[in-house]
Structure to design on (488 residues):
């Protein structure tokens, strides 16, 4: 099989450039309380109702580490097949902003809790491994609101102190499509683990996107620009395309790229310079004197290891080996844990191949159309399984099954009951079908002549007529067999 390239290449004049991308993903830890305080973290609460004295940085207040958040970070690290650092340090990252009451963010710098790992992307061209540089814990800041009061900027501290994991990739990504696959895979893994809900609309997953370009064949990385805080995959992809093309233009005009932080303007579809890139020393990082180094024991890590469910890659492998699914089918079914559960429930008592087709075909189309998650599916796994069995056992044809499916979608009914009520059972009685076909044949003597004189395409016409005469209920295989005999 030829491997399709997934690299994004930009051609200008005689030169071909490739794009190099590294992501810093900020994933909000799924936790009821904040990283260093017991304030709640509910989304959409009234402004400033989830703020403790610690979050508002009242003098003398001390941070207390939330053990659950540490577990979540370690769990995520294990999901990324990463090295867990048994000793990590919380540092202060100092900067001034109105929505950062402490005047510094507690983060991890030199000694993060999680070291190197990797994520496997499932691309149309095959699998590709993306390196993870590190995962560290940090606090979120509050939110400045500029568009409520024309005179003033308002500050909401509900997010202040919320636990984030910053997951830093190596510069291994090569196209907007790979970024799409990377974010989705990362999100899928964290949802399996229950460590981040991955909800981008609510800001639980955001990314800084680092982009550089270089001529193909060049070994050295180009100078990167960092696009801050992009909160949708589509915007990330647009920002990358735009930024990469901008950089190529600059280089082709004989200029050079300044390392800087840029903003993506979603309305104008362009990136704009925000500031020249700050260096680490600008932040005056130093270990937070209010927090001891964080030490985790082997027992602590092993307990978490035991709580980790089967993850998408392993599940995919099992589905392929055990159920003979294609890689494509397995990817679709494992990408979301609820879909994989639904699938396994359906196939407990039904044919795998047929079930897979119905889930990835009709069911996904239905969910798409109604914009529903599979957990809200109008058709339960149990009833879909029954439908598949009705087809497999020859009780109804695939075609009738589609109309039964539509009726099931209106209220999760047992398909056998629908078939009974509507009298949709497939007619498989050869005697009945023979009578029916005899009538079709005698009603269409002219066509029979044409058929016998060599117009074989007419066979389909007879099948159609016979199916119609049975209101679509005749067993198509039997119709075929009997017709062949009758038209000899
Ligand atoms: P900082 O915290 O200053 O932004 P990091 O060393 O943590 O710096 O790197 C941030 C991200 O930039 C990483 O995801 C890394 O993969 C990416 N990166 C580094 N160099 C390049 C480059 N030349 N082109 C694209 N991305 C890069
Ligand atoms: Mg950065």
């Amino acid at each position: 099989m030829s491997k399709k390239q997934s690299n994004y290449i930009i051609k200008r004049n005689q030169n071909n450039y490739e794009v190099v991308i590294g992501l810093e993903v900020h994933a909000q830890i799924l936790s009821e309380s904040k990283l260093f305080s017991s304030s709640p973290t509910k989304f959409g609460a009234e402004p400033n109702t989830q703020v403790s004295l610690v979050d508002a940085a009242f003098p003398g207040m001390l941070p207390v580490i939330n053990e659950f958040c540490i577990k979540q970070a370690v769990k995520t690290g294990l999901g990324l097949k990463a090295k867990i650092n048994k000793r990590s340090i919380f540092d202060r990252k100092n900067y001034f902003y109105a929505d950062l009451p402490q005047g510094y963010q507690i983060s991890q710098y030199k000694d993060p809790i999680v070291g190197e790992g990797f994520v496997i992307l499932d691309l149309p061209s095959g699998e590709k491994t993306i390196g993870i540089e590190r995962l560290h814990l940090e606090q979120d800041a509050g939110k400045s609101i500029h568009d409520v009061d024309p005179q003033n900027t308002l500050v909401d501290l509900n997010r202040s102190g919320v636990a984030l994991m910053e997951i830093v990739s190596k510069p291994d990504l090569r196209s907007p499509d790979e970024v799409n696959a990377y974010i989705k895979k990362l999100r899928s893994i964290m949802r399996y683990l229950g460590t981040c809900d991955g909800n981008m609309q609510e800001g639980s997953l955001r990314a800084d996107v680092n982009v550089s370009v270089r001529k193909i064949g060049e070994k050295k990385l180009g100078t990167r620009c960092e696009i801050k805080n992009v909160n949708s995959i589509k915007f990330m992809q647009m920002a990358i395309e735009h930024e990469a093309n901008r950089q190529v233009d600059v280089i082709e005009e004989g200029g050079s790229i300044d390392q800087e932080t840029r903003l993506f303007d979603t309305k104008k579809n362009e990136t704009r310079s925000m500031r020249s890139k700050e260096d680490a020393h600008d932040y005056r990082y130093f270990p937070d004197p209010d927090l001891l180094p964080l030490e985790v024991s082997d027992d602590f890590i092993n307990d978490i290891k035991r709580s980790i469910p089967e993850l998408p890659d392993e599940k995919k492998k099992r589905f392929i080996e055990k159920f003979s699914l294609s890689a494509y089918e397995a990817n679709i079914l494992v990408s979301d844990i609820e879909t994989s559960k639904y699938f396994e429930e359906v196939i407990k008592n039904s044919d795998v191949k047929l079930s897979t087709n119905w889930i990835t075909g009709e069911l996904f189309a239905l969910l798409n159309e109604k914009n529903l998650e599979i957990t809200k599916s109008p058709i339960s796994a149990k009833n879909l399984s029954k439908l598949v069995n009705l087809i497999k056992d020859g009780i109804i044809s695939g075609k009738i099954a589609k109309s039964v499916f539509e009726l099931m979608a209106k209220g999760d009914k047992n398909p056998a009951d629908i078939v009974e009520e509507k009298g949709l059972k497939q007619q498989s009685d050869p005697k009945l079908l023979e009578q029916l076909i005899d009538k079709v044949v005698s009603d269409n003597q002219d066509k029979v002549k044409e058929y016998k004189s060599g117009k074989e395409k007419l066979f389909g016409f007879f099948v159609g007529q016979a199916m119609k005469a049975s209101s679509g209920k005749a067993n198509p295989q039997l119709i075929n067999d009997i017709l062949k005999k009758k038209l000899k």
The mean pLDDT is 94. The two ends are 44 Å apart (CA to CA). The CA atoms of residues 125 and 411 lie 40 Å apart. The chain has 15 helices and 16 strands.
